[in-house]
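Hi everyone,

Forwarding the result from last night's run.
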Amino acid sequence: MRAAARRRHAVADAAPLFAALGDPTRLALVARLGSSGPLSITRLADGSAVTRQAITKHLNVLSDAGLVRSARQGRERIWEFDAAPLADARRFLDDVSRQWDVALNRLKKYVEK
């Protein structure tokens, strides 16, 4: 696969993750699940102005992005954070950072001539 095709593929893979994390409510849910461990929707809604139905919708978006997963436990569904997609996002951002470093170094050399 050519480099340009790999970059397009990487962007397409990363987009849903960044879109999911771009919402403050979803980002807060990820932070809560990451620090507290697996929780039910009821527990996630405790002390929040967000309804359980809204939290469910947000969790489904995060699940589609691979950031959370759920398992049925009795009558409740327990949601758990999965950090693996963040490692992929980190690699993507590191690649973008390296590309910018190369471009800025070329510009610096050009300007200093």
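The mean pLDDT is 88.

Cheers,
N.
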